[in-house]
Amino acid sequence: MILPINIYSDDILRQKAKPLKGVDSDIEELIASMFESMRNASGIGLAAPQVGRSIRLLVLDLACVDNYEHEKPMVVINPHLLAVRGNNEMEEGCLSVPGVKGYVTRPSVITLKYRDEHFEERTGEFSGMAARALQHEIDHLDGTLFVDRMEKRDRKKIQKELATLTSGVVDADYPVVPRDVAAITKNS
Ligand code: ZN
Questions:
Q1: 11-170 — its CATH code?
Q2: Of 9, 41, 87, 164, which sits with the fewest C-beta atoms within 10 Å of its C-beta?
């Protein structure tokens, strides 16, 4: 099922998501819907808070990125960064911040402990686009958006776009959670 995506100013994107205790049929269904929603929006990563669930779960599929065609889709639950090294700057975008792109500096190599779709514990080292996308999605689980990590000078240039998103005017070619619905969810 294609789920609508929460946009920039929605409260759920600013919350610290809760760890999962296991994978049941509800979560299996959510994972399938997250992959479907992400691909429908031509995204390479999606975190559960972006589809209205404040839990520590994200999906990733880099197969549409050049040189990553053979990369398998990933389900990441309860991730913990064990180590980081290096640094690089890359341009990022986000399905929750449509129409906005910006350069962000992040560690270039990460060691990650997480649980997979079977809730089996795994540890892996990731670099390149995988390290980049994983850190972007893990940020979502802590209520952080990539625009928060942009340099002040660059952020100033996108203030207008962010204000437009906050006002509820969203130009995206995938379903999004309308502003009034986000407000109702916030108050209930
Ligand atoms: Zn994002």
A1: 3.90.45.10
A2: 87
